[in-house]
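Course assignment 3, question 2. Fill in each field.
Student: A.L.
Task: Predict the tertiary structure for the chain below.
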Amino acid sequence: MHELQQERTDQELFDEYGKLSTAAVSDALDALRLPGSAAGLGAVVDCRRLIGRAFTVRYVPAALEPGSVGDYIDEVPAGAVVVIDNAARTDCTVWGGILTEVASRRALAGTVINGVCRDVATSRELDYPLFTRGRFMRTGKDRVEVPETGGPVSLGDVRVLPGDLLIGDDDGVVVVPRSREAEVLEVAQRLQAAEDRIVDAVRGGASLEEARRANGYHQLQRAGYLTN
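Answer field:
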């Protein structure tokens, strides 16, 4: 399968992934035995779809003389997704209204946080994609700080590297490793096409059992499906 891949521009890739749900991409990751479905993360408000490459930020508990908590935002390129690892803490926020305002003005694709956010109304007002483990109003200032950007981070059981592809919708967030994104896309498209055929068959009068059997439904996320 690797030999069949062709180079795509980011926009071409985003356009193709934009036709797929996170569920389809998650199924493809499963079929390829790749982690990537970020458990416990969801959209804070109804917002536009999230898709873009990761700009990674790692937080740690603050030192006695705390350091920066948000100045990194000036380094994030337009179109990137800010991926913040705050070790799944829910007792203090690492993203609020000021960062949402700046991110929106800089045309960032959205923010994904292994932790919580606040000032949710600003995200709603600006239609800014924000995926987190929840919301909490208490500031992270003097509680956490940023020792590193541009390194590997964690979204729970999913590792994210700078430049990895993130996709978010009503079902949550998936992470596609940059080195495998063309392969994942091909498999997700095949899986989605099979599910579409099942729906079409049922609409045409077939029973669900018949439609699933004809399209190998129970093998779709299994590794053997990829060799068929």
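Instructor remarks: Confidence is low (pLDDT under 50) at residues 1-6. Strands lie at 42-43, 50-61, 81-93, 110-116, 130-132, 144-149, 153-155, 158-160, 165-169, 172-176.
Grade: pending
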